[in-house]
């Protein structure tokens, strides 16, 4: 999966995943917040999956929202982005490093 127009990667790991810190991941993800409301919607996440060459972006974005949206409002807030890391490592081709 290509990491198209990635904000800031540190390199590519041996398994082909792009490495970035959690802060770099947050900055990259915010690029998809098209209405700049500070929330990542299902549509924003769908675009992140699609841009990075992911298949089934609608299904994956719903899965990502469900896995990270701890307060159940249907959006991923700044405080919930850490919960999105597992999803990103599985579906967005990234590896979060320290």
Automatic annotation (TrEMBL):
<dbReference type="GO" id="GO:0005509">
    <property type="term" value="F:calcium ion binding"/>
</dbReference>
<dbReference type="InterPro" id="IPR011992">
    <property type="entry name" value="EF-hand-dom_pair"/>
</dbReference>
<dbReference type="InterPro" id="IPR018247">
    <property type="entry name" value="EF_Hand_1_Ca_BS"/>
</dbReference>
<dbReference type="InterPro" id="IPR002048">
    <property type="entry name" value="EF_hand_dom"/>
</dbReference>
<dbReference type="Pfam" id="PF13202">
    <property type="entry name" value="EF-hand_5"/>
</dbReference>
<keyword id="KW-0106">Calcium</keyword>
<feature type="domain" description="EF-hand">
    <location>
        <begin position="20"/>
        <end position="55"/>
    </location>
</feature>
<protein>
    <submittedName>
        <fullName>Calcium-binding protein</fullName>
    </submittedName>
</protein>
């Amino acid at each position: 999966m290509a990491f198209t127009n990635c904000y800031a990667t540190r390199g590519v790991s041996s398994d082909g995943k792009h490495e970035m810190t959690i802060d770099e991941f947050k900055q990259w993800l915010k690029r998809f917040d098209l209405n700049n409301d500070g929330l990542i919607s299902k549509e924003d996440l769908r675009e992140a999956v699609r841009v990075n060459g992911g298949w089934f972006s609608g299904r994956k974005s719903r899965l990502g929202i469900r896995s990270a949206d701890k307060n159940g409002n249907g959006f991923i807030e700044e405080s919930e982005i850490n919960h999105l890391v597992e999803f990103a490592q599985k579906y967005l081709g990234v590896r979060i490093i320290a």
